[in-house]
Specification:
Blueprint lengths: L1 E9 L4 H4 L3 H6 L6 E10 L4 E8 L2 H12 L11 E11 L14 E9 L4 H18 L4 E5 L6 E8 L2 H14 L11 E11 L7
Length: 204
């Protein structure tokens, strides 16, 4: 499975006009993939929405991107958009496919930049502790970018309440499994943002 994370950034003071349109944007988001979730940024750069879509192959993703290039207003909110960014990712080997469900409503998206060749070692380090870390709080997905340019990894953590996040991270740190030993050796930059699942998202 390949996952595409597309971020739609809105122009200032357009959120009220866009929100009624977004369910239709979500419903028609991809012609060749399955859109799984839509999330609104709550802490971070505001007026942005993440759309997470699953594709069976890179060919299916390429077909969708070709369609977008030929569509004048593919998301139906072109007049309100300040920017669009899309990145394709491949899951780490120990990750199961994402299944829709009510895991949130809070979703933490952590984006790390990586030095060249760092994915295999990072994946190995994560693989050693992820079973125990999952017992503390669910990892929805960790994945590495497959685009040209500097490599990134994204991991997504859903929480029912923000207190659950604090408790899980504290426990993982106490046990010495977080950050994963050796899992930071190839990281060059760290970013964490908190998103809320939208009402029309399949990941809630």
């Amino acid at each position: 499975m390949i996952y595409d994370l597309t971020t739609l950034a809105l122009l200032p003071n357009t959120l009220g006009a866009v929100m009624p349109l977004l369910p239709e944007t979500y419903a028609g988001f991809s012609s060749t993939g399955r859109v799984l979730g839509a999330f609104s940024c709550d802490f971070g750069v505001l007026n942005r929405f993440h759309f997470l879509t699953a594709y069976e192959s890179t060919e299916a993703l390429a077909a969708e991107r070709a369609r977008l290039m030929e569509t004048e207003n593919p998301y139906g909110i072109g007049e309100y958009l300040g920017g669009v960014n899309s990145t394709a990712y491949k899951p780490f080997s120990f990750c199961a496919d994402i299944e829709p469900g009510a895991y949130g409503p809070f979703y933490e998206f952590r984006t790390y930049s990586m030095s060249p060749g760092g994915v295999p070692q990072t994946e190995e380090a994560w693989g050693k502790i992820i079973e125990r870390r999952n017992e503390m709080s669910k990892l929805l997905m960790v994945m590495a970018s497959i685009e040209e340019g500097p490599q990134k990894m994204v991991h997504i953590w859903p929480y029912k309440a923000l207190e659950d996040r604090v408790a899980a991270r504290a426990q993982a740190g106490k046990e010495g499994i977080w950050p994963p030993p050796g899992g930071s050796d190839y990281l060059t930059g760290l970013q964490s943002e908190l998103f809320l699942a939208t009402g029309f998202s399949d990941l809630k």
